[in-house]
Amino acid sequence: MKYSELIPCLDRNLIYQLKLKPNLTLMEHYERHCPPPDRRFNCLIPPPIGYKIPIRWPESRDEVWKVNIPHTQLAQEKSDQNWMVVRGEKINFPGGGTHFHYGAYKYIIALARMLKFRNDKLHNGGNVRNVLDVGCGVASFGAYLLAHNIIAMSIAPNDVHENQIQFALERGIPSTLGVLGTRRLPFPSRSFELAHCSRCRIDWLQRDGILLLELDRLLRPGGYFAYSSPEAYAHDPQNRRIGNAMHDLLKRMCWRVVVRKDQTVIWAKPTSNSCFLKRQPGTLPPLCSTDDDPDATWNVQMKACISPYSSQMHMVRGSGLVPWPKRLTEAPPRLEEIGVSAEEFHEDTRIWQFRVSEYWNQMKSVVRRSYFRNVMDMNSNLGGFGAALKDTDVWVMNVSPVNQSARLKIIYDRGLIGTVHDWCEAFSTYPRTYDLLHAWQIFSKIEEYGCGLVDLLIEMDRILRPDGFVIIRDKPSIVNYIHKYVTALRWDRWISEVEPRKDALSSGEEQVLIVRKKLWSGEDSTM
C-alpha cells in the first residue's frame, strides 16, 4: 500500500537510494531519474483503501472523491485563494488560483479584454488554441479554458504541493508532471499560441534567462506570454528590480510588451528575424547555432540561446495555421518537414475515423462513449486517433515514441496536445490517470529495442484507472503473448478480440484486443 502513488521515474526515494546528487537550485530533483532494470517494481500498484470509480466529466471539473487522493493539505494552505475545499466525502474546486481568487472564468475574460480580442473571447476566433500553463496548481485555469475551445498543457512538478497534478488529472483536466529545470520540456518548438504563469514562483532570470528562452522555443511566431505575479506590478525595490531585469532580458530577446494592466503583463514573441539582425554584436542571449534542432527534446539540455526562424519556416503569426476547429483536419505546413504529403495526411485521418468507429462497435455493448475522459494514444503518429474523437467529451494525451518525435509537431499544429516518451521507461504521471489506453504497434516496436513487454504491461496497468479499458492493436503473436497475462493483470472484467479489416496503415496481419480492468482493493494485493 505504501506504493499506491508510485511514479517510478519521479521517485524521490530512488534518488536517495542511488546516492544521486541532483542540483536542487536547478530543480534537477524534480526531473526524471528512472530505476535501473534490477530495481523496477515487478508488481501491480494497488489503489488506496476505499477507492471509488472517479466522478465523471463534466461534474469532475468541480469535485472529486477525497478517498481517491487523500491529501487535503493544499485545502488548508490555499484556503484564502479558493483552490480547493474539503466537503464531507468530496473535495470541491471553486475555480480559484493564487492570482485569480474570484475565479478562472473572470480572469480568462480579463486576459481577452487586455488583448482586445473580439467579444472578450480568448480563443480569438480560433487562432488561440494551444496554451502552456506552467506552475499550474490544480489546473483550474486550464479547466475553464476548455469552455473557450482552448486546450492547455498544464504542468507542475511533484514538489511541496506534491498532489496538485494528481488532483488535476482526477478532475479530468489535461495536465502532466513537468518542471522547468535543466532539460527541455518534451514538446516540439512553436507549439503554443500562449504561455501562462500565474504566481508560478519561477526564477526567470537564472542562468542567463534560460527558462524564458525555453518558452521562446515553445511559442509560435507572435505568441503571447501572460505573466501575473508581483514582479509585474509591485513597487517595492526587490520586485521592481526583478521586473526591470525581466523587461530588459525580454527586450534583448526581441519580445515586446503588448499590454500591462493591474497584476498582469503580456508580452509577444516576434514574427521574424529582423529584430535579431539589428542587435549590437555580442548581445546576449545569442542566437542558437544552425546545427541545433529546436524539436529535439528527449533528455536534451536546455540551451541559453534564441532559436531563430529558418527560411523554410512559416513565420506569420500562428505559423500560418487555419483557426480551430478547421485546423484539426487541415494539412498543416510543417508536414513537409517530416516528408508526409497532404494526401497521406488526409488518408491517415480517414483511416482512423473508420478504425475508431470499429472500436466503438466492439465496445458499445459494455460502455457509453460519455464514460471516457482521460485518454492516451501511446503511439500517436499524426494524431489521427485523437482527431477521430473530436465529437466526444474526451481529451487525448498523444504520445510520440522517441524515434517518432518529429511527428509531435503535427499533432500540436492540429490543435491537439501530446508529449515525447520512451516506452522502455515509466511515464511521468500518477497511478490511475487514464480511462483508456490505445496501444497501436507499440509492443512490436519496443520488442525491437530489446525492452520487456511485461514491464510495459505493468506500467500500463499503473497508469490505467480501475474499470478502464485498453485497446491493443498489434501482430497476432504479440496479442497472443499478452493474452497470457490478462488474468494476472486483472484485465479480465471484459475481453473482446477481433481481426480488423486491412488498410493502408496495416503492416501485415493485425489483431485488436480490448480488455477492461477490474476494480480491486489494496487488501487483495496480499493474496
Q: Which key phrases capture this entry?
A:
527 residues, alpha/beta, seven-stranded mixed β-sheet, 17 strands, 25% helix, 18% strand, globular
Helices, strands, pairings?
Blueprint: H1 12-17, E1 63-65, H2 73-77, E2 85-87, E3 90-92, H3 104-114, E4 130-134, H4 140-145, E5 151-156, H5 164-171, E6 175-177, E7 192-198, H6 206-218, E8 219-228, H7 230-233, H8 237-252, E9 256-261, E10 264-268, H9 274-277, H10 342-363, E11 374-377, H11 384-387, E12 395-401, H12 408-413, E13 417-421, E14 434-440, H13 442-448, H14 453-463, E15 464-474, H15 476-483, E16 494-498, E17 511-516
Parallel strand pairs: 4-5, 4-7, 5-6, 7-8, 11-12, 11-14, 12-13, 14-15
Antiparallel strand pairs: 1-3, 2-3, 8-10, 9-10, 15-17, 16-17
Mean pLDDT rating: 93
Poorly predicted ranges = none
What about the largest sheet?
7 strands, mixed
Helix content: 10-25%
Query: End-to-end span in angstroms?
Result: 13 Å
Q: Kindly report the spatial arrangement of strands forming the biggest sheet.
A: 6-5-4-7-8-10-9
Shape: globular
